[in-house]
From TrEMBL:
InterPro entries: Cro/C1-type_HTH, Lambda_DNA-bd_dom_sf
One Pfam family matching this protein: HTH_3
Gene3D superfamilies reported in the protein's UniProt record: lambda repressor-like DNA-binding domains (1.10.260.40)
DNA-binding listed as a keyword: yes
Domain of life: Bacteria
Species this protein is from: Pseudoalteromonas haloplanktis (Alteromonas haloplanktis)
Name the UniProt record assigns to this protein: HTH cro/C1-type domain-containing protein
Keywords from the UniProt entry: DNA-binding
Signal sequence bounds: none
SMART domains according to UniProt: HTH_XRE
């Protein structure tokens, strides 16, 4: 067996929006200059934002980038 690490980026945006007076996806999108659909895709981990957008999101919530986004290893087994 060979073990490999694949990395995944997750985020806490939905929770942070809720804690921020239940901010809507549209309000966040307007604040960072993207569409609501983009925010929805980022929240669902279907799209990784550009570094610029990631920083804008962290600024909106007044948090360090690593508290908004998490970069985690996901181990995989290869049966070679």
């Amino acid at each position: 067996m060979i073990f490999m690490s694949e990395y995944v980026i997750t985020n806490s945006i939905r929770t942070l929006r809720f804690l921020r007076d239940e901010m809507t996806q549209k309000q966040l999108a307007d604040a960072i200059g993207v569409t609501r659909q983009t925010v929805m895709a980022i929240e669902a981990n279907k799209y990784s934002p550009s570094l610029e957008v990631a920083f804008k999101i962290s600024i909106v919530f007044n948090l360090p980038l690593e508290e908004v986004f998490q970069y985690k290893a996901k181990d995989m087994q290869l049966g070679l």
